[in-house]
What does this fold into?
Amino acid sequence: MPDVLDIALLTSWIDRTAAVLEREKAYLTELDAPIGDSDHGMNMARGFAAANAKLGATPPGDVGALFKTVGMALISTVGGAAGPLYGTLFVQAGVKSAGKASLDLAGWRDCLAAGLAGIVQRGKAEPGDKTMVDALTPAVAALDGGGLSAALAASAEAAEQGMKATIPLVARKGRASYLGERSAGHQDPGATSSWMLLKALAETAA
Ligand code: ADP
Ligand code: MG
It folds into this structure.
């Protein structure tokens, strides 16, 4: 089990994420159908395929460059809310990790926290608004020590709990908010893709 996240590991994380999102494309789109516009699976699969291709074409020299490449690929290839929001997450993570060859647990927590702060600044969602913020917030909080692999597993589990907790919520941000009370009873697609990203990271580092 690795004690740091280096460029090779982070590159395989993005590769794994692209594969997971391609496989789960129909499921994410199904979640986006009743409370959105049925494009979340397509958006995510297309964005991470582009990010993965970019990393393959120009291997980054440090972690900051890697995250920045992923973020810019997401921003430039994904329309809709989620592309720019996930793009911001990776760009801000890249600012935190500029020049670093690898991240230890505290380094990764700083990156994810900065990424989440970027999403909140841009999208103005608070916990409980039924968005990806509901999965990412507990995921950051769960990165509170212990070994790297165990912490990443705990973080992914916390994201899964946050994702499930979006089901009864009434959406206050994004397209789902147009439905008002009728958005309750559906799991948020963006919280679900956030869980998938973090689960892929935990699996890559296991
Ligand atoms: P769109 O809503 O433009 O079709 P997607 O379907 O790709 O974009 O993504 C929808 C997801 O984006 C939602 O499930 C939610 O998690 C997330 N989202 C939407 N608006 C916001 C926001 N303001 N802040 C955080 N996340 C948001
Ligand atoms: Mg949508």
